[in-house]
Amino acid sequence: MKIFCTILLFTLLYISVLNSKTLYVSTSGLDTNPGTFDLPFNTITKALAASILPSDTILVRGGVYTLTSTITINTSISGKQDTLCHLFAYPGERPLLDFTTQSYGSKGLQIKAKYWYVKGFDIKGAGDNGIYISGSFNIVEFCTMFENRDSGMQLSGGANNNKVINCDSYWNMDPSEGNSDGFSPKLDVGTNNYFFGCRSFQNTDDGFDGYLRPSNNITTTLDNCWSFMNGYHKDFTVSVPGNGNGFKMGGSDLKNLEHNFILYNCLSFDNKAKGFDQNNNKGSMTLINCTGYRNGAKNYSVVLALDSGKVLTVTNCLVYGVMGTLLSNAVLTTNSWMRPDSVTRADFVSLDTAGVRGARKPDGSLPDVTFMHLASGSSLIDAGTIIPGRPYAGSAPDLGCFEFGLVSDLKNVVNHKVGYYLSNNYPNPFNPSTEIAYQIPSSSHVTITIYNILGKVVETLVNEDKSAGTYYVKFNAANLASGIYFYSLKTDNYVQTKKMILMK
Fold first, then answer.
1. Active-site residue set
2. CB neighbours (10 Å) of residue 71?
3. Tell me, what DSSP letter sits at residue 376?
4. Which of 89, 91, 399, 467 has the most CB atoms around it within 10 Å of its CB?
């Protein structure tokens, strides 16, 4: 019976795979081609029109794509929770979507759909936002938006439950210079959007802007994000009209709307105005292990009373310089300005910002820098309060956004909610190696097994007890033949299986 069920499972999966497809786009292709590897399309728009279904993949070859019209992923081509649609850069290549000649007011890439995974693109010069998201449950990873004529990326129109992972947004400038932020979850945006490992710098307005009109009582989470030198032009001159805040945590026309902002391990420095700014937000704001340094006006500023039931919580945060002003009824715990000893230059390895604009690592994660890292022997090490679910080294968390002695930096948090998750492997198709991410919410025995199309086990990647957390595992298929394979995550009370394609 067990053998029969296994065969039935993989037969059903095989039928599903047969119904999925991979389409290719290349600067040397033609839209009259069938979109195969040898005869690719020339445009992403053509590929999107090719009857995209859940689990389908569009792979875009490297090169410069000169575009004048918005690329729109419409709601009619949405994926599903466990079978996303994919728009990926071809493995090892980097496409540039250049909208420089596009008319002002037109967006670059617009995602209206649900359950899409977009990864690996540079987007330049759009007449409005480089990427505009109004859909839900999408992932945008390792993308760069620059020199667009509004915010580099904006989430509005009800956008909710989206994840923006390891993206950069910089040098964006609109004609008025007062609307071009790096990342903008604002206006009529929905709730539960999440940003991880994102950099925002030298945008003429703000780094991150959560201004609402008319959305209310929504939540946005930022994790391990850097915001610096906003309110400045590409040539480092000041943008006079731009606000220049690092993290603008909300606000509204009538100063009466609630944007619940959560920030973990975020770094704000050298912005024209404030580092972490309330901007009349009436919602809850939670800042955990954040660092402010050398921001022009204040490093931290939350001064207006919040709505009933809303709370300002600041824990394990660090400032070097002028702290600013926080509400008298804020919940403050183990922050640097609460200590009897003052923060000095000696507490840091370096105050040199060299490398903060450096190239990301091959997996898209932030570059390694020494800037604002705590020096060995600093009293700020192990001086914080333990936050459940947040990593730390030593006897307790450090103060500030960088943890001294942590063996490895946090990687892409593909799923930030507590629960089980098995990622789509990347790259896919692959040759010969690919990476799989998975998350478990509690301690369990975990196995990750690779099967061939007949249901035979070809390799077991994981077979051990694991504590709650997010993990990454590599699969090297150098000794296997090209074809379709499946990988399965199994814990004490959860099983999920996905497919991968080895293409040699």
1. 248
2. 23
3. T
4. 399
